[in-house]
């Protein structure tokens, strides 16, 4: 009979999510970033010391502080709702009614199972329902939801849902093609494989519209 630790390893090693939203505690932002950095710094110091590293070495002295700042300010900064980009939209005064596709948006995220990088590209599209959004805002939405411990399926869905809310339309799609270093650099150690996820809303569920979008992006992603 499988025990709880083995079950948790099965979930993590097979990259299975048990929550459609990022599992963040309600008190996650009751303390400041500075306090978080100080607490994480001490934890990183303990990890390195436990591994046998000499933290008096000039190369390692600043590592715990650098890692702590990176966690809070950079790679997990998207956990903080205060950093959510304002998705400004505008009237579609020029009456553009065709598909708009933003290709090859760089994705830097972190696998929540092993805390190793996810690196790839997102392709996002929408069909205006009277509102349009600035192109850079699409990139910023991808970045915001990427900067947190993630699973790729959830990230793909979050991008679509955020744009649907901002644009007031279901007609949004996203495809992400990414490498997971927890697959590429450990475990099976397959350096060539990548993972493709997709989420199609509204008109993009129609086979012809979906095919048009996929033809635009062609999934010939290079890393």
TrEMBL record:
The biological pathway it contributes to is: Cofactor biosynthesis; 7,8-dihydroneopterin triphosphate biosynthesis; 7,8-dihydroneopterin triphosphate from GTP: step 1/1
- Record-listed E.C. numbers: 3.5.4.16
Signal peptide span per the entry? none
- Which GO biological-process labels does this protein carry? one-carbon metabolic process; tetrahydrobiopterin biosynthetic process; tetrahydrofolate biosynthetic process
Q: Which UniProt keywords are given for this protein, alphabetically ordered?
A: GTP-binding, Hydrolase, Metal-binding, Nucleotide-binding, One-carbon metabolism, Zinc
Q: Which GO terms describe its cellular component?
A: cytoplasm
Q: From the UniProt record, list the reaction(s) this protein catalyses.
A: GTP + H2O = 7,8-dihydroneopterin 3'-triphosphate + formate + H(+)
| Claim: Transcription is one of the keywords in the record | no
Q: What class of enzyme is it?
A: hydrolase
Domain called GTP cyclohydrolase I: residue spans: 40-217
Keyword Membrane in record: no
Q: Name one GO molecular function term.
A: GTP binding
The record's annotation in InterPro entries points to: GTP-CH-I_C/QueF (IPR043133), GTP-CH-I_N (IPR043134), GTP_CycHdrlase_I (IPR001474), GTP_CycHdrlase_I_CS (IPR018234), GTP_CycHdrlase_I_dom (IPR020602)
Q: Which domain of life is it from?
A: Bacteria
Amino-acid positions noted as binding Zn(2+) in the UniProt annotation, renumbered to this chain: 111, 114, 182
Could you describe the subunit structure of this protein? Answer: Homopolymer.
What protein family does this chain belong to? Belongs to the GTP cyclohydrolase I family.
Q: What is this protein called?
A: GTP cyclohydrolase 1
Gene encoding this chain? folE
């Amino acid at each position: 009979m499988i025990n709880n630790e083995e079950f948790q390893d099965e979930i993590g090693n097979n990259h299975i999510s048990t929550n459609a939203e990022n599992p963040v505690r309600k008190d996650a932002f009751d303390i400041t970033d500075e306090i978080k950095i100080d607490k994480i710094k001490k934890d990183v110091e303990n990890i390195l010391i436990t591994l046998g590293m000499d933290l008096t070495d000039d190369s390692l002295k600043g590592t715990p502080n650098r890692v702590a700042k990176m966690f809070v300010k950079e790679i997990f900064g998207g956990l903080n709702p205060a950093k959510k980009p304002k998705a400004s939209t505008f009237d579609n005064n020029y009456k553009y009614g065709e598909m708009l596709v933003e290709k090859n948006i760089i994705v830097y995220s972190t696998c929540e199972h092993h805390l190793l990088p996810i690196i790839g590209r997102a392709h996002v599209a929408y069909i205006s329902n009277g509102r349009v959004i600035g192109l850079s805002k699409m990139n910023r939405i991808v970045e915001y939801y990427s900067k947190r411990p993630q699973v790729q399926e959830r990230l793909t869905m979050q991008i679509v849902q955020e744009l649907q809310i901002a644009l007031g339309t279901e007609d949004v799609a996203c495809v992400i093609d990414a490498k997971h270093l927890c697959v590429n650099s450990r475990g099976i150690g397959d350096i060539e494989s990548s993972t493709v996820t997709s989420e199609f809303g509204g008109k993009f569920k129609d086979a012809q519209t979906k095919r048009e979008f996929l033809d635009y992006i062609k999934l010939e992603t290079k890393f």
